[in-house]
Amino acid sequence: MARITAGVGVSHVPAIGVAMDTGITDQPYWQPVFAGFERSRDWIKKAKPDVVFLVYNDHCTAFSAEMIPTFALGCAAEFAPADEGWGPRPVPMVKGHQKLASHIAQSVILDEFDLTIMNAMEVDHGLTVPLSIMFGQPDEWPCLVIPLCVNVVQYPPPTGNRCYNLGRAIRRAVESYDEDLNVVIFGTGGMSHQLQYKRAGLINSVWDTDFLDRLTSDPVGLSQKPHVDYLREAGSEGIELVMWHVMRGALDDEVVEVHRHYHVPASNTAVGHIILENKVKE
């Protein structure tokens, strides 16, 4: 059967993508950011996922204020990098796994989670930057990708608890798929940051560190945090962290933390990153 073996939590700061695309990752400002991803790239080469299930949020590219699904599952054969105002990123076309995506849609919807099924969708930096962070800049991505877009742009976003339980449903769906596939799930966005008004530039390292700690040790308790805690402590864009709960919910209750990277700042945000593996059962 297919199985989810590991989870990756990672920020999707657009400036990280720009740094890679323009070849400035060795500049002093960016060196410590990318140094923390070297081990991650080695790890994923060894992990060799067949499929990456990537949880991210659209930044008013594929969706506008006219239509904002809470959860949108990409079921297309491919997803083109979006033009976010300065041309598409020079990265490969994202190729999907249509059969597994369709199976997940059926399983999760019958498990009473309402998904919007996307048979055509462009993907922005929310999805492409995490892929670049983990895989570098290949001629084509080394695995297939299933996108899950979550609304964290317009209130109300889903709760951490809802996202965590959706992760559980995704795991059940993957494990009921009759093909031997190694699936790694990504939760992206965050960490603490705010882009506007008086608290623009807010970074709360204490909150971020506690979030990373509890993601490993107390995921259920962490998922119970209300929206107002994210807003107050992590800034208006810190709510993106609810997407990490989807990733964590898809893993075992007990996991092994393989790698962690945290750096301030990259652009005007904190960069957070963690790799979690399910414990090998004897």
3D structure, described in words:
This protein has 282 residues and is α/β, with parallel strands linked by helices. The chain has a single domain (3-278), classed as LigB-like (Protocatechuate 4,5-dioxygenase, Chain B), CATH 3.40.830. It has ten helices and ten strands. The strands form two sheets. The chain has an eight-stranded mixed sheet with strand order 6-3-7-2-8-1-10-9, with helices on both faces. Strands 4-5 form a two-stranded antiparallel ribbon. Helix 1 crosses helix 5 (125-135) and helix 4 packs across helix 6 (160-175). The radius of gyration is 17 Å and the shape is globular.
Topology of helices and strands:
Elements: E1 3-10, H1 14-21, H2 31-35, H3 38-47, E2 51-56, E3 71-74, E4 78-79, E5 94-95, H4 98-110, E6 116-118, H5 125-135, E7 144-150, H6 160-175, E8 182-188, H7 205-217, H8 219-223, H9 227-234, H10 242-249, E9 255-266, E10 269-278
Helix pairs in contact: 1-5, 4-6, 6-10
Point out poorly predicted stretches: none
SSE class = alpha/beta
What is the CATH level 1 assignment?
Answer: Alpha Beta
What is the averaged pLDDT score? Answer: 96
Tally the structural domains: 1
Order of helices and strands: EHHHEEEEHEHEHEHHHHEE
Report the count of strand segments. 10
In short:
The protein has 282 residues and is α/β, with parallel strands linked by helices. It has helices at residues 14-21, 31-35, 38-47, 98-110, 125-135, 160-175, 205-217, 219-223, 227-234, 242-249; strands spanning 3-10, 51-56, 71-74, 78-79, 94-95, 116-118, 144-150, 182-188, 255-266, 269-278.
